[in-house]
Amino acid sequence: MGYASLIVPYSSVKWGIIMAVEVKTITYQEYLAMPEMKQRYEIIDGEIIMCPAPTFDHQWIAGNIFEVLRPFVRQRKLGAVLDAPLDVVVCHDPLRTRQPDILYLSFERSGKTLAELRAMPALEIPPDLTVEVLSPGNTRREMRDKLQDYINIGVRECWLVSPEAQTVEVLRLSSEGATTVNLFGIDDTLRSEVLTDFSLKVEDIFG
């Protein structure tokens, strides 16, 4: 399947004529056959939703977290820490994927070795932890829907990082919903229930 079939719906008016483009949704098998795409996107009910490129500040903040979190996990051989773009499959039919800014997947909970994880054509094992760096364009509904997808597949914890407020909200995810465990400010030290020995000064995230 080529890019020509990956159509985002729109309507336009030209010379008084309204033209509509039919939405082309993709299946899980078509998704597996897609060429690798470096541009960020998510698939919602079979429709590819392209995401704008993140800002410099967004990437800087995500990078500060990644540069501390990955060595912590790797040195202790706890699992894998990866950053976007990387699809997490939420549902096959209709196809639904998400791309957290950062994710942590433990070997113990997944029951997989690193070699087995690297051989998977798509990530269909729930991460233990996801990190979302918020952007001004994020709506409450978008974030609520994303958190619900994480809950549905069994993600245990999510960090919502706000560049504007310079805070990190740690959410515990369960079948009962998303519960705020802590809201860490610029003078605090970030801690996690999933990674109990992990700590990171919030000022180092935004500095």
Please describe what this structure looks like.
- The chain is α+β, with helices and mostly antiparallel strands and 207 residues long.
- It folds into 2 domains: 46 residues, no CATH class; 153 residues, Alpha-Beta Complex (tt1808, chain A), CATH 3.90.1570.10.
- The chain has 6 helices and 14 strands.
- The chain has a 6-stranded mixed sheet with strand order 5-8-9-10-11-12. Strands 1-2 form a two-stranded antiparallel ribbon.
- Helix 5 links the parallel strand 9 and strand 10.
- It is globular, with a radius of gyration of 18 Å.
Total beta strands: 14
Query: What is Rg?
Result: 18 Å
Side by side, the strands of the main sheet go 5-8-9-10-11-12
Assign a percent range to the helix content: 25-40%
Residue ranges: pLDDT <50 for 5 or more in a row?
1-21
Mean pLDDT over the residues:
85
H and E order: EEHEEHEEEEHHEHEEEEEH
State the CATH class of the largest domain: Alpha Beta
Fraction in beta strands: 25-35%
Described by the principal axes of the CA atoms, the overall outline is globular
Name the CATH architecture of the largest domain.
Alpha-Beta Complex
Number of domains: 2
Specify the structural class.
alpha+beta
Question: Helical element count?
Answer: 6
Tell me the name of the CATH homologous superfamily of the largest domain. Answer: tt1808, chain A
Major sheet description: 6 strands, mixed
What is the first-to-last residue Cα distance? 44 Å
CATH topology of the largest domain: tt1808, chain A
